[in-house]
UniProtKB/TrEMBL annotation, chain A:
Name of this chain's protein: Cytochrome c
Domain of life: Bacteria
The UniProt record lists the keyword Metal-binding: yes
Stored PROSITE patterns: CYTC
Example GO molecular function: heme binding
Keywords for the protein's UniProt record, in alphabetical order: Electron transport, Heme, Iron, Metal-binding, Signal, Transport
Provenance organism: Ruegeria intermedia
Signal peptide region: 1-21
Cytochrome c domain ranges (all copies): 26-129, 158-234
TrEMBL record, chain B:
Keywords per UniProt: FAD, Flavoprotein, Signal
Keyword Coiled coil assigned: no
Protein name: NADPH-dependent 2,4-dienoyl-CoA reductase, sulfur reductase
Signal peptide: 1-26
Single GO term (MF): flavin adenine dinucleotide binding
Annotated ranges, domain FAD/NAD(P)-binding: 33-146
Domain Flavocytochrome c sulphide dehydrogenase flavin-binding: 355-420
InterPro entries registered for this protein in UniProt: FAD/NAD-bd_sf, FAD/NAD-binding_dom, FAD/NAD-linked_Rdtase_dimer_sf, FCSD_central, FlavoCytC_S_DH_flav-bd, FlavoCytC_S_DH_flav-bd_sf, SQRD, TAT_signal
Record domain Sulfide dehydrogenase [flavocytochrome c] flavoprotein chain central: where: 164-279
Keyword Flavoprotein: yes
Length: 235, 421
């Protein structure tokens, strides 16, 4: 089924307009809404950067683990090396169940069960890849940094050594090797995202009782130290 | 060939000897020595962290009789059919690879003046700092009619392994419509929600395999951990199956007869098919032998888990009397890290950071119906004191409960790799 879809897509690309392609792919407008659940980690559009997840510009045709400088999981580095490329079919399978598709992915996301939602979001992402569609002039659709955190807090340089000591409280649940089943991975996050997330728990903006409690008694320096430590972990 | 091999062996022995000599001469007894007794959530974590963080500057020896450790946490899920026994088993290979000298033997005595630990196998281990994490033993005579010789007829299954397997076998062999009884323990005891998660898992098994069977719980307490959550779950999933008899109805006035398989609650005798007796608990016996207990438990200083009786001995986990933390694997793991940091600082001068403790206990009530309770703690001069806490709410959505269960599975993977490497 997915193979067939891929062939159809290629045919569209060679023959006709983006409207037809969008039909096959799904509704990009609806996909923009579906993408809301991805925005916490991924940016796409003009000026998109790597955050917790890689940016998604020029995604189509990109090999898995294809952005230089982003710290991918071993699973994805292996998949990329063995030839996995992102196209509508591979994205569809991955988004349906990320963990079963790439067991070691650090993407803490349950997947999109609804096939139409997947097609829509893939259509949306397609807008930000070259050929056959023009790259639209678009604002960044999302930043992971929607927050009102004091810049002074973000500017704190964390002490990774102190972070290592504090981290022992985290590693009772979060696996140090980036493994992730039931409890998300927290390794290799950009420090800023880590700090923002922890302060969001501390301020009860993010909802999770354990994390609100754990973050609630960490001070600004301690959060910065943890961010620095987990960002530097190698696995 | 023969000659060459002998010559080679001889040479090797000489080289080894000459290499070993300077280390011994370098200092009174060379590197500082830490002995850890008990390879569970407290001991394994402490041993691993001290070895890892001291990067070889401290000799760490772990004394643990079993070669394969079965976690008590999640063992109820084995009774319910959610886990296999082997899912709960862990080897000490990771600790050995991490530089811990793992000795499979029983510690049978501590000479605090000479600072040595005597082993059942005949050896003796010198220490500079001793960490006791021996878990629990049972108080003699706590349940009239029951002693350790009756544990085959009436298993406690409160140390995971063969006892857990025995209880499961008895559960599976129950006659149709039979009675499963539990004698619950008085406070304080290991894993406060444990008996009630067990009741839930037994009910889950019986509902599928023996739906007319009954469960009686005789409890010396008027209330228990996560009581509202469990009672809501029992009403939702196992209506009419579970009869909990608390203190108010004589649940504390019990005796058993293992030969006749009877349980007497407040003068009323009942014939039962399985009887899970969980007696009152005390610190594992080595703590008492070391002379660091006061009553049933070993009092410790909150800042570093050191014994109030001896600054060179630290006591972790269930055996310790520390204040507000529940006796749980999570707590022991948390305490072990504070202790490891303090012990390393004392022996090598490394930086000692202030103590922070935390705990979360997850319990499974039925398939995808998980609940949790947790808190953070700090060290005060008197005790480990609770700072903040939370508990799952009654009436939560199925999605929240499922996510809580999935989180508990993630925690299991996390803590066991944190313990065993």
């Amino acid at each position: 089924m997915q193979r067939v879809l891929r062939v159809v897509l290629l045919a569209c690309a060679t023959v006709v307009s983006t409207a037809v392609a969008a039909d096959v792919l799904g509704d990009a407008e609806a996909g923009k809404v579906v993408f809301d659940q991805c925005k916490g980690c991924h940016q796409v559009g003009d000026g998109a950067k790597n955050r917790i997840g890689p940016h998604l510009n020029e995604l189509f045709g990109r090999p898995a683990a294809g952005i230089e400088g982003f710290k991918y999981s071993k699973s994805f580095r292996r998949a990329g090396a063995s030839g996995l490329e992102w196209h509508a079919d591979t994205l569809d399978a991955f988004l349906e169940n990320p963990r079963s598709y790439a067991s070691g992915t650090r993407m803490s996301f349950r997947g999109i069960k609804d096939a139409k939602d997947r097609q829509d979001v893939i259509a949306y992402l397609r807008l930000f890849s070259d050929d056959p569609a023009n790259i639209p002039e678009a604002d960044p659709t999302a930043t992971a940094t929607d927050h009102d955190l004091d810049p002074a807090i973000l500017a704190i340089q964390g002490d990774p050594e102190y972070g290592e000591y504090l981290s022992s409280e985290c590693t009772t649940c979060h696996q140090k090797d980036g493994g992730d089943d039931g409890i998300p991975s927290i390794v290799l996050w950009p420090e800023e995202d880590f700090v923002i997330a922890m302060h969001a728990y501390k301020n009860k903006q993010r909802q999770h009782p354990v994390m609100q409690m754990m973050a609630g008694r960490l001070n600004d320096e301690e959060i910065a130290a943890l961010a620095a430590y987990f960002n530097r972990l190698e696995n | 060939m023969k000659m060459d091999r002998r010559a080679f062996l001889g040479k090797t022995a000489l080289v080894t000897a000459s290499l070993a000599a300077p280390a011994v001469l370098a200092d009174g007894h060379g590197k500082p020595r830490v002995v850890v007794i008990g390879g569970g959530a407290g001991g394994a974590t402490a041993a691993r962290y001290i070895a890892k963080d001291s990067k070889g500057a401290i000799d760490v020896t772990l004394v643990e009789p079993t070669r394969r450790y079965y976690t008590c946490f999640f063992s109820n899920l084995y009774l319910g059919g959610f886990k296999d026994m082997e899912d709960l088993g862990h080897s000490y290979g990771g600790l050995a690879a991490g530089g811990v000298n793992v000795v499979h033997d029983w510690a049978i005595g501590v000479d605090r003046d000479a600072r040595t630990v005597a082993l059942a196998g005949g050896g003796s281990l010198p220490y500079d700092k001793l960490i006791l994490s021996p878990g629990i033993d049972f108080v003699d005579g706590a349940v009239p009619g029951w002693d350790i010789s009756a544990q085959n007829a009436m298993p406690h299954a409160y140390k995971a392994g063969s006892q857990t397997e025995l209880l499961k076998a008895q559960l599976m062999a129950m006659p149709e419509g039979g009675t499963f009884a539990m004698v619950a323990p008085p406070n304080p005891y290991r894993c406060p929600p444990g008996p009630y998660e067990r009741v839930s898992m037994v009910a889950h098994f019986l509902k599928a395999n023996n739906p007319t069977a009954k469960i009686i719980v005789a409890d010396p307490k008027p209330k228990f951990s996560k009581m509202a959550l469990f009672q809501e779950g029992w009403a939702n999933h196992y209506e009419g199956m579970i009869d909990w008899i608390g203190e108010d109805f004589g649940g504390g006035n019990v005796s058993v007869d293992p030969a006749a398989m009877t349980l007497t609650i407040d003068g009323e005798e009942t014939k039962v098919d399985v009887c899970n007796v969980i007696p009152a608990m005390k610190a594992g016996r080595i703590a008492e032998l070391a002379g660091v207990t006061d009553g049933n438990w070993a009092p410790v200083n909150a800042a570093d888990m050191s014994s109030k009786a001896d600054p060179d001995i630290h006591v972790l986990g269930d055996a310790s009397q520390q204040g507000d933390m529940p006796k749980s694997g999570f707590s022991a793991n948390s305490q072990a890290k504070v202790c490891a940091n303090a012990v390393r600082g004392a022996l090598t001068g490394s930086k000692v950071f202030p103590a922070k403790f935390s705990n979360t206990c997850w319990s499974l009530i039925d398939t995808n119906d998980g609940v949790k309770v947790g808190a953070t703690y700090e060290a005060t001069p008197e005790k480990i004191a609770k700072v903040d806490g939370f508990i799952s709410q009654t009436g939560e959505s199925a999605d929240v409960r499922k996510a809580t269960y999935e989180e508990s599975e993630g925690w299991y993977t996390g803590i066991t790799s944190d313990m065993f490497g």
